[in-house]
Amino acid sequence: MPVSPGQGGNSSSPTIAVLHAVDRPPALAEHACGAELRFATDDTLADTLPGCDALFVWDFTSDAVRGAWPAADTMRWVHTASAGVDRLIFPGLVDSDVTLTNSRGVFDTPMAEYVLGVVLAFAKDLPQTLRLQDRREWRHRETEGIAGRCAVVVGSGPIGRAIARLLTAAGLQVRLVGRRPADGVHGIDELDALLPEADFLVLAAPLTDRTRGLLDAAALGLLKPTARVVNVGRGALVVQSDLVDALAAGRIAGAALDVFETEPLPADSPLWGMPNVIVSPHMSGDTVGWRDALVELFADNLARYRAGTPLRNVVDKARGYVTGNTGGSA
C-alpha cells in the first residue's frame, strides 16, 4: 500500500517518476541532487511507477495518473505543477496515505494581472478597437470607467485574494466569495444575493463537487445585462452551453474565458466567433519564467521531503485544495 513521507521508503535518495508530455521540466536533474528520475508519458506511466517513492506531475493536463495508479506500489508523495488538483482527486489517491502537494503561489500575481487586463479590455472596448484597426476604420466611441464598479470574485484562496487586491487597487469595489464566511469574505451561500451587483464576475475557485456547474442558467439569470464573466479557474465551473446561450441572447454583455469544459477549445465552438468574448488558451498564469518557478518549488519540496520536514502546499484531499499555510510559505 502507498505510504506517506516519513513512513518507510527511501527519503534520502528517492526514485521519482516525472509525468510529462513533449517538454520535460527545465533543469530538473540539476535540482534532483542525485535522486533517480524516471521520465514517463501517458502511455508509459503505469510501467514507470512501480518502485517509485514520488511522482512529479509536470503534465498537469493529463488524466493518466488515475489509470496508472494501481502500479504505484511504493508511492509516498505526489506533486503537481498546477494549482488545481481536480484531475488527481480520485478514490485511489484520496483514500491512500500518499501526500499530495500543488504549486500554489506560482500563478497568483500573473493571473491577477490577466484578470485586470481583461477587465480593462472590456471597459475600454479594446477588442473592437483592434478589429476596427484591422479594417483601417476610424470610429470614435465612448468607453467605460472601472473606478467604483463592482467585481464579485469567487475563490478566496491565494489567487482569488491576489485578484481582489489588484482590482481594488484599480478602483473597483470587490466582493470576495469563499467556501464559508470569514473576515472580509462572503460565504458561497451568499453568491446569489451578490450576483445582481456584479459588473464583473470573476471565477477563480477550485473545482470541487460544490463548485462544479456553479455558473448555470439560473446564476446567469441573476446577472445584469451589462455584466461580464471572467473565468480563470476551471472550465467546469461554468455550464458552457448556458453561458453561450446567455451571450448570444444578450442577457450578459461579455465573457473572458481562459479555461473550458474541453481543452483545446474545439474549432467549431461558437465562443470563437462571438465579438463579446475573449478566448485565451489556458495561459492566464503563464508568464516568462513560470516553468523555472514550478521546478524551483518542486525542488524546495524535494529538499524538505529528503530532510523529513513538512512539505509546502499540502492538499486536503477531502476538500480538494490547500488549507492554510501548511509546511511553510507558498
From TrEMBL:
Keywords: NAD, Oxidoreductase. GO terms for molecular function: NAD binding; oxidoreductase activity, acting on the CH-OH group of donors, NAD or NADP as acceptor. InterPro entries: D-isomer_2_OHA_DH_cat_dom (IPR006139), D-isomer_DH_CS (IPR029753), D-isomer_DH_NAD-bd (IPR006140), NAD(P)-bd_dom_sf (IPR036291). Residues 40-315 form the D-isomer specific 2-hydroxyacid dehydrogenase catalytic domain. Residues 117-284 form the D-isomer specific 2-hydroxyacid dehydrogenase NAD-binding domain. CDD domains: 2-Hacid_dh_1 (cd05300). SUPFAM superfamilies: Formate/glycerate dehydrogenase catalytic domain-like (SSF52283), NAD(P)-binding Rossmann-fold domains (SSF51735). This is D-2-hydroxyacid dehydrogenase. It comes from Pseudonocardia bannensis. The lineage of its organism: Bacteria, Bacillati, Actinomycetota, Actinomycetes, Pseudonocardiales.
